Amino acid sequence: MYKRKAIFLLLISFLLTGCWDKVEIEDRAHINAVGIDKYSSSAEDDKVADIDEQTKEAKEAKDTERNKYTFTFSFPDETKKEGADITIATVGDALYSVSRIMADRTNKEIFLGHLRTVIIDVDVAKDSKSFREILDGIENNELLSRRVVLAMTDDSAGDIIKVKPTMQPRVGQFIAELFRRRDRTPRAPSGSVGDILKDLHETGNALIPRITAGKTDVKVAGAGIISDYQFKGWLGEIETALLMLLKGETRILGGMRVDYKGYSIPIDMRPKKPKMSLIDDESNMKILIEIEAEADVKQTYFESKEDMLKAEVIKEVEELANREIKKRTEETIHKIQKEFGVDVIGVDRFLRQRHYSLWKSLEKDWRDIFPNIDIEVKMDVKIRRIGLIR
Amino acid sequence: MSLWEKLFGKKNENQNIKLQETKVDKNLDKNLESIKNMLVDCDDIVYREFKIGTDESYRATLIYIDGMADKDLLNDYVLKNSMVSSRITPPNEKFIKKELSNILKDKTLTITEMKEVETIEQGVLDILSGDTVLILDNYEKLIIIASKGWDGRSISQPETESVIRGPREGFVESLRVNTALVRRRIRDHKLKLKGYKIGKRSQSDVCVMYIEDIVNQDALKELNKRLMAIDIDAIIDSGYIEQLIEDNWRSPFPQIQITERPDVASAALYEGKITIIVDNSPFVLIVPSTLNAMMQSAEDYYERWGIATFIRILRYIGAVISLYAPALYIAITSFHPQMLPSKLSMSIAANRAGVPFPSVIEAIIMEITLEILREAGIRLPGPIGATIGIVGGLVVGQAAVEAGIVGPIMVIIVAITAISSFAIPSYSMAIGLRLLRFLLIIISAILGLYGIMLGTIVILIHLCSLKSFGVPYLSPYTAYITQHTDLKDTFFKAPLPSMHNRDTTANKNQSKRMQDLRDEDFNKEE
Predict the structure, then answer these.
(1) Does B461 contact chain A (CB < 8 Å)?
(2) What is the pLDDT along chain A (390 residues), one digit of tens a residue?
(3) DSSP codes of every residue in A89-110
(4) CA-to-CA dists, residue B1 to A7, B5, B11, B249, B477, angstroms
């Protein structure tokens, strides 16, 4: 009798704790991208969302808490081999609860385990309260991996989700793959939710990549600056690239040019991790950022007299490159300091790690101090590869 | 008493039926009478009555079974010698009267093996075993002439354990041939053979072999006890013995290793194990046995260590796949698709879009089909077997996918599972895993990966609790401290020169099996 009771209790404890959420794989809608927009009743192209508006209750509840956002989901249509996506949009107040609402409208179970991309409308990010809601919704969801791409857009997020890129018709996949190729271009910061959340937890500041919609593709370039869990402003493409250079998150920095004797020579750089150091002047705090980089010069001009085999030519070009990059990075720093006043360069992290006692005294007023400190950049470009020479 | 106990419970009846014993009489006719009484209506028994001596005054009878006794031997060396030679030799009348039996035994019968018994029952048993009984008048014993000689299968290549490199001999159905095959590999007087007759009616010969000074004594005692406790009417094959002496009959895992190869049997003897050879069965039992032993093949020891290690790891992978593959497929696709790469997940979803069954039903349909194919394959005549394999595997599989009954991934999973299960050298192990596979399929369909983990834990607990003749089933994996030297021959096989020690399960006094007397470098220049 005792044995039977024990077996019964064991069985109960096993069966009550199991995974009872069995849904066959083909009955799930594998959402690969979500766009989150602020809800506005005049969303014209939101035909599917209109269904909600047709019901009376929904109409009355339009501006209640429940309808704060418009979520646009995109998931693959398995019946078609070409990999076409289905997009549907709905209104709701949270990523989590919206899948329950969707249950009324889809024959499939919304499944976020394969979500690759989350696009946030900049209007959502401008409101600190709603932005933090969304961020927590992403962080808390156990199905979302830390590698989900988070990007911001000026356009409507729903529009981006509806883009069908010609190269890869699944937009979520496409955007995630763009970010995976980030090694090739530094014009956007890391979009992975893990990195962004880490930055936000540490300082409340972060860079979120910017995404813009085209007709048949999307472009990821530039960055939105988040300060205090709130959108502050956009950083341009080149500015982002230079900022990434300062932060040491670039492997290849292309698109730099130097004017050498009337010709413009493109330079590709492979920078090392920059060294940051503190030079404490009596008057003002000064931060020195030293960047070493190897560079490729793959093009000068045809039949040139000054070919790259000459040491002095190389020296001169290196010098020009140093000057050019230094100038432009310092401009960027200036813009970040004066216009946004947000320390996205990582000086705060550096001070906390290396000069903790100093940081302790500055921590409280860092927001006021940062725009006024001196940041100097020292470039050291070495041209290593010059391509083939006749 | 529950139904379980009624069906499977122990019934210790303890009824020792003592065999009736009839002493051999002086009178030949009386003896003949009682033997004939016992063997009434046995038409294959041959009674050959003849007379010995110049004046034909001494009667004798040969009794044997037609077909089991070697007639040439009886003709040339028994009948000829006693009938013809005894007439040519001038007999000493006085002498011969008293000592006829001794003359026959010591001088006349030119045969190698003979003995005397004193009871009729024993004599009859010997007749039934294929020996010949010689009854003499005025003699109170039966002379047994070893004349077993019947046609048996010749030694051929073992089918269940074929190897590329290694001997091609396999055990046959005849006990003495089998013991000789082992003996040929162990020229050591310490190799002992102990005979048992098991089976009340079959009286099958069972032979226990061990090397006296390296055998695991506890296991030997235990084995003796268990063999003596068997009280069954007949032993048809060594499988009967296996099932009657194994530690846990409820377990799906075989606790006794079987082999068809004399080299495997003798290697086991050298490791301090015991082999049990049963007459009429080419499968020899090896005890004690462990999971580790089930995953080894003879060839591991003949090939160099690197490749042997690699192949062993492959086998373990094969075992894991054959146990888990369908269960994992079900658990991941129906409960945790986030574990798959996105593209794979979507392609599985696309493939499954038209399949009308849930994945668990799909898996069970395919597994059952496969098991049927496998079972049918055994009985199909040789040349058709291969055809059915192709028709069953390829055509049915392909057609099932095209008909939309199962998804293509499921076909792959089932095929991989089937192939992997053949990577396990021990057939009984492989079929044990086959059963557990179904269990895991069902539990994974109910509880997902959590269920697979529970199932694995239950299987591991069970494996840890298993013992084979006192040796833990999972040793040496589970006993690192006391048996770490045995780990040299588990997942990986150490190079032969470094395997100095015998298994720790063998007799502790004989732990050394090799001394390394080689030069450091064979090519060293002097």
Answers:
(1) no
(2) 788 888 888 878 777 766 667 888 888 888 889 999 888 765 444 444 444 444 444 444 455 555 678 888 888 877 666 667 888 888 888 887 887 777 777 788 888 888 889 999 998 888 888 888 889 988 988 888 888 899 999 888 888 888 888 888 788 888 888 888 766 677 888 888 998 999 899 888 888 999 988 888 888 888 999 988 889 889 888 888 888 888 888 888 877 888 888 888 888 888 888 899 888 766 778 889 999 999 888 788 777 777 777 888 889 889 999 998 899 999 999 998 888 888 888 888 888 888 888 888 888 888 888 888 888 899 899 988 888 876
(3) EEEES-HHHHHHHHTTT-SSEE
(4) 19, 6, 12, 20, 40
How far is Cα B290 from Cα B313, in angstroms, rounded to an integer?
Answer: 17
The half-sphere exposure of B94 on its side-chain side, counting CA atoms within 13 A, is 0
Q: Which amino acid is present at B125?
A: L
Asked if A78 lies within 8 A of B353 by C-beta distance, the reply is yes
- CA neighbours within 13 Å on the CB side: how many for A200? 21
d(CA B244, CA B14): 16
Contact list in A for residue B352 (CB cut-off 8 A) is 24-26
Tell me the residue ranges of DSSP E strands in A134-284.
149-153, 205-213, 218-227, 230-235, 253-260, 263-271, 275-280
Are B431 and B320 within 8 A, CB to CB?
A: no
- Say yes or no for a CB contact (<8 Å) between A114 and B348: no
Say if the Cβ atoms of A19 and B338 lie within 8 Å.
Answer: no
List of residues 6+ apart from A342 with CB closer than 8 A: A205, A225, A227, A232, A336, A370
The reply to whether residue A81 touches residue B350, judged by beta carbons under 8 angstroms, is yes
State CA A102 to chain mean position distance: 27
3-state DSSP of B326-393: HHHHHHHHHCCHHHCCHHHHHHHHHHHCCCCCCHHHHHHHHHHHHHHHHHHHHHCCHHHHHHHHHHHH
With an 8 Å Cβ cutoff, are A25 and B359 in contact? yes
Q: Which of A306, A289, A285 is nearest to A362 (CA)?
A: A285
Using CA atoms, how far apart are residues B303 and B307, in angstroms rounded to an integer? 7
Chains A and B: how many Cβ contacts under 8 Å?
74
As a 3-state breakdown, chain B gives helix, strand, coil percent values, each rounded to 5, of 50, 15, 35
Put simply, whether B359 touches A (Cβ < 8 Å) is: yes
Distance of CA A282 to the CA centre of its chain: 39
State how far the Cα of B29 lies from the Cα of B36, in Å rounded to an integer: 10
Q: Which residues of A touch B (CB under 8 A)?
A: 14-15, 17-19, 21-26, 28, 30, 32, 76, 78-79, 81, 111, 113-114, 116, 143, 145, 173
Answer for the pair A70, A152: CB distance below 8 angstroms, yes or no: no
Cα–chain-centroid distance for residue B243?
A: 11
Give the span between the Cα atoms of B366 and B418, in whole angstroms. 11
Set of chain B residues whose Cβ sits within 8 Å of the Cβ of A32: 342
Element of type H or E holding B33 = helix B28-38
Half-sphere exposure of A19 (CA within 13 A, CB side): 21
Q: How far apart are the first and last CA of chain A?
A: 95
Q: Which of B345, B353, B358 sits opposite A30 (nearest CB)?
A: B345
Among the partner residues B337, B358, B448, nearest to A28 by beta-carbon distance: B337
CB contact under 8 A, A25 and B352: yes
